[in-house]
Amino acid sequence: MKLRVSAVQYHLHTIRTFDEFAKQVEHYVKTAEEFGTEFLLFPEFFTTQLMSIGNAQGEALTINDLPDFTEQYRELLSSLAKQTKMHIIGGTHVIRKGDSLYNVAHLFYPDGRIAEQPKLHITPTEVHEWSMKPGDGLQVFETEKGTIAMLTCYDIEFPEIVRMAKAKGADVIFCPSCTDDRHGFHRVRYTSHARAVENQVYVVTTGTVGSLPTVDFMRANFGQAAVITPNDIPFPPRGIMVEGEINDDMIVTADLDLELLYQVRERGSVTTWRDRRTDLYTDWK
Fold it and tell me: Which of 38, 126, 153, 178 is catalytic?
């Protein structure tokens, strides 16, 4: 089974209307469509761009205002997924459930279905500045091209959760991210490589670029998209199938061959998934 994936280095800049946001999103989707993309990944928190629209007093909106755009966001991405017959991982969007805010990755299927995966590990900024809550369960998602998982940014830094995703059958981990400096970026990037090696899976990751000068905690972004593979002979030696230019507004695209994963799990130079010592530690299921 093969699938073509693209990841967007989404350029954040100040906008005035939702329509401006919609046109930018559509531009990336149409570009990916021209490349024959089947799975398109947007970054974490890319919808914070909507906060720059501001209020009647000319002040930026707050994180508590962002869920007000949820219906428009879902309609936009769902419509584009159906139009292009593409699976769109719509980065993350902040939603409200009861009195709580959640940072939620969304999968928009070509047939109109929408699946959600809340971020499971949330950062100190999300807790203390934005009063967010973590999700309480991991799902994997069946598609006509295989089983995937959506683990957002900080999630990828925890090996247990990716073990669980692999144990549930995921072959591709989509990791939308948003980091404001080199330190955060490299934490996500290096652990993405570790998770690919440990579990013999693909990791597709990307981040926001540009800046939102009026939006607190979104004034700086350091991002780069990459498609990361296990480090074995069928794959590139450095485990990087493709990567973008750091902090540029662009899309990267690559073809993933799931059969290669199955081959290296059975008879690769190393067989890390098969060689787990489940007599010594937990076998995640």
Answer: 153
